[in-house]
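#struct-help
A.M.: can someone run this one for me? Single chain, 190 residues.
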Amino acid sequence: MTTLHLPPPTAHVPASEQAHLHRLSSRPGAAVLALFTGSRADHAVAAHAADLARSGHPVTAAAVVRSTGFSLNALLHHARHRRIQADTDAILAAVLPDLARAGPVRTTALVVPARINPYRALPAGRIERAARRLACDVILSPAPLPGRGPHPTGPAARTPARRARRRLHGPATAAAAGSAGVPRGGGRDA
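D.P.: on it. Structure tokens below:
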């Protein structure tokens, strides 16, 4: 049996009280994915999402919930689902009245790994995949998305390591590769 030690959910973590806006595209009237973690910054995110909803942007409210993963045991899987639903309802209960007054709101849960502290930083890749799946072009979050600026898509957003890796596997390097698939010369041992 493996024991996983998680920090208590009520641990004192200083949270910023501002909303972080990330655009995936610059489409007018883009849908908004508003993330809520249960922190003090949720009210700032709700206020900003309500302003966007009043101006005609469809809003999806997503509660960020931590979980240890799936279980093969049906009873444990059902208990996990009920806990995620209860956590989602508790997080969204504080902000949904403000959002509902601004316009129609869809709700969902975004499950993140237990090792993630949603009060400090959120997993950017997982959130961007959820935004694409929900057809949202704007992400509002109470915590910053690491490595993401205001416009995280496009060639300028790629890190230098990703650009270098992409060049390594390009057609010019593949032609210079030897019979063993190792580039000739200029290697580490050269």
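A.M.: thanks! The chain has six helices and five strands.
D.P.: also worth noting: The longest strand covers residues 59-67.
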